[in-house]
């Protein structure tokens, strides 16, 4: 099968700002897409860069990992072989291969995602740790997608020199490139051309399910680096359903009982460390916190 070429603008060797300028030219050239684009870009920038509610680095972990972090005071990456749920985890060959492609010092790098509100990439764990903005310096490396995509078509299988150019095109720095990177990613998916965008739409465009921009943070992550821990109301609803079954004498499974117990332990430890904990859900133009 013939390999299709990658988009010359998106995967070009210019800065994210320059590529975004070209991307906006494309949108404006289509009259039906153009009327609200400038207003929407201005709104998106304002939302992304807001000091109190703007972009954050988040790390999702499960209850076992959260309890370990709260107990030891240090978050471990996969190269530090953390013991989670009684099992020692080690870096896979795929992780090592991707880190090599990215040019990262794996043992000194801590991976996260870019989020605007919300509860992170829940595939990796129900607890979303939000890293304080002061901990993420301006030069922190960001990547416009899940770096494992480099192992899959159409990004895999190129020559070493071409792969290096692709990695360079998709990389950037937190302060200089992140806003332009995210807006460039959003352009083909802006919902509707005839109205102004809302915070909820922007949040969903920054992170949707497992589609996200990746953060590569250098140096250890300590308890003092965490701004807050968030959770989705989904897990709270599941816990409530399990406890209701127990109260009505329909016995939960042992797995469910252990899961609820872990949640109670995690909340107790969060309170012990005076760590802010919130349940977040999206309503209307913004996020509601409880």
Keywords for this entry:
290 residues; alpha+beta; nine-stranded mixed β-sheet; 9 helices; 13 strands; 19% strand
Any chance you could write out the topology, listing elements then pairs?
Blueprint: H1 16-29, H2 37-48, E1 56-61, H3 63-72, E2 74-75, E3 83-84, E4 87-88, H4 93-102, E5 109-115, E6 127-131, E7 141-143, H5 160-170, E8 171-173, H6 174-186, H7 199-206, E9 214-218, E10 221-222, E11 226-231, H8 233-247, H9 254-272, E12 277-283, E13 286-289
Parallel strand pairs: 11-12
Antiparallel strand pairs: 1-5, 1-6, 2-10, 3-4, 5-9, 6-11, 7-8, 7-9, 12-13
What is the tally of helical segments? Answer: 9
Helix content: 25-40%
Strand order of the largest sheet: 8-7-9-5-1-6-11-12-13
Domains, number: 1
Radius of gyration from the alpha-carbon trace, in angstroms: 21 Å
Largest sheet properties: 9 strands, mixed
Report the count of strand segments: 13
Structural class: alpha+beta
Mean pLDDT: 91
Distance between the termini: 52 Å
Shape: globular
Residue ranges: pLDDT <50 for 5 or more in a row? none
Strand content: 15-25%
Order of helices and strands: HHEHEEEHEEEHEHHEEEHHEE
């Amino acid at each position: 099968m013939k390999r299709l070429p990658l988009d010359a603008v998106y995967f070009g060797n210019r800065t994210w700002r320059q590529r975004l300028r070209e991307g906006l030219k494309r949108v404006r050239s289509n009259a039906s897409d153009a009327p609200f684009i400038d207003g929407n870009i201005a709104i998106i920038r304002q939302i992304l860069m807001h000091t109190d509610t703007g972009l954050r680095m988040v790390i999702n972990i499960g209850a076992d990992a959260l309890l370990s972090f709260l107990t030891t005071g240090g978050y471990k990456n996969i190269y530090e072989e953390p013991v989670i749920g009684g099992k020692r985890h080690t870096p896979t060959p795929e992780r090592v291969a991707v880190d090599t492609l990215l040019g990262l010092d794996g043992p000194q790098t801590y991976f996260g995602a870019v989020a605007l509100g919300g509860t992170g990439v829940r595939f990796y764990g129900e607890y979303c740790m939000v890293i304080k903005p002061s901990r993420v310096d301006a030069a922190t490396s960001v990547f416009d997608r899940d770096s494992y995509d480099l192992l899959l078509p159409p990004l895999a299988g190129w020559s070493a020199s071409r792969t290096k150019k692709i990695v360079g095109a998709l990389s950037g720095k937190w302060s200089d490139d992140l806003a332009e990177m995210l807006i460039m990613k959003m352009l083909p998916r802006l919902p509707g051309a005839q109205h102004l965008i809302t915070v909820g739409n922007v949040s969903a465009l920054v992170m949707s399910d497992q589609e996200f921009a990746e953060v590569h943070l250098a140096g250890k992550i300590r308890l003092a680096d965490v701004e807050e821990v968030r959770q989705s109301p989904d897990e709270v609803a599941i816990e409530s359903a399990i406890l209701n079954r127990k109260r009505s004498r329909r016995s939960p499974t042992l797995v469910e009982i252990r899961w609820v117990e872990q949640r109670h332990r995690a909340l107790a430890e969060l309170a012990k460390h005076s760590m802010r904990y919130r349940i977040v859900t999206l309503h209307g133009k913004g996020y509601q916190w409880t």
